[in-house]
Structures are given as structure tokens and as C-alpha cells.
Amino acid sequence: MANRLSAIATRTGDDGTTGLGDGTRTRKDALRVMAMGDVDELNSNLGVLLCEPLPGEVRELLVGVQNDLFDLGGELCIPGYTMITDAHILRLDNALVQHNETLPRLAEFILPAGTRAASLAHVCRTVARRAERAVVALAAAEAVNPNPQRYLNRLSDLLFVLARVLNRFGGATGDVLWQQRKNAG
């Protein structure tokens, strides 16, 4: 692989702009840049989750998701470019079905808690939802391929299911249920 980055500190962003993949420059607070940043933050949080002990198939799935998110960020970085396909979404759909089949049916609301790995998966889920909202906002302002939005929607669902899986991994006791509190007064 060729060296892609020869300089990290270019100082070209000191004026509040950043370069896109097509060579154009835009403001750092532009909707496109915000969406790219949220996807990058999601990918970084997945990296933290991957530091935890995980079932092998979950680890492999999440490493694949990290690569997909890098592609998704690349697609957002180049207006009009497409990298996320229906096949990416189908892979998430299949993983969702596979992992959900192993879980008991939900009868109560659950809290984003439990094991450290499950809690980190919930953090990733919430960041995925934020990234999805950022892509929705971008799509309302500019033409955007619908697949990044669909991918992030499926991914947040999958991360919810994986949090439940991780709350059962290694002898953990399962979901942490929400308990409605009555007013004391």
C-alpha cells in the first residue's frame, strides 16, 4: 500500500475549513463534516469495545463493521461517491437475525447497563443513532446515497442486540431491567 498521508499537521484547517475527498474545501461545521465526525467517533468507540473480552464471532463482526464505517466515512467525504451497498446492509441484517435468535424475548425495557462490554456496546449504539441523525440532516440539505443512513440504522439495532448478547457472555447474568419508581410523596 502506498503512503497516503505524508503530513498530518498541514495547517490548512487553521481557517476553520477542511478538505473533502474530492479536493474541495468546506467549513468544519458543515453538515457533511459533522456526519463524518460522528461516524469517526462511532468507529473509535467500537475500537474501545474491541479492547474487551468478546465472543470470537462478535469480535469478527465488529472488526468488519469498523472497516465498513471507514468506507462509510469515505463515502461521506466524497460528495456523489458510493461505497456502502445493499450487501453491507444485508450483512448487518443477517447478523441481527443470528444474534437475536439466541436471546430471550424482551418483556421489559432494559437499561444500558450490565457488563462493561455490554455498556460500551450501548454507548456505541447511541453514537450510531447520533451519526444516523447527522446523515439524515445532511440528506435533507444535499443529495446523499440512502445506504449510509440505512446502514447506521441497522447498526444501532445490531448494537442493542449485541449488548444483550454481551450481558450473557462469560457467565454474566443478563439484561438489567428498568424498574418504574413510584413517587415517594
Automatic annotation (TrEMBL):
Among the Pfam families in the record, one is Cob_adeno_trans
Supply the alphabetized keyword list. Answer: ATP-binding, Cobalamin biosynthesis, Nucleotide-binding, Transferase
What's the EC number here? 2.5.1.-
InterPro entries reported in the protein's UniProt record: CblAdoTrfase-like, CblAdoTrfase-like_sf, PduO-typ
Specify the Cobalamin adenosyltransferase-like domain's residue ranges. 8-165
Q: Which GO terms describe its molecular function?
A: corrinoid adenosyltransferase activity
Source superkingdom: Bacteria
Q: What is this protein called?
A: Cobalamin adenosyltransferase
Q: Which organism's genome codes for this protein? A: Piscinibacterium candidicorallinum
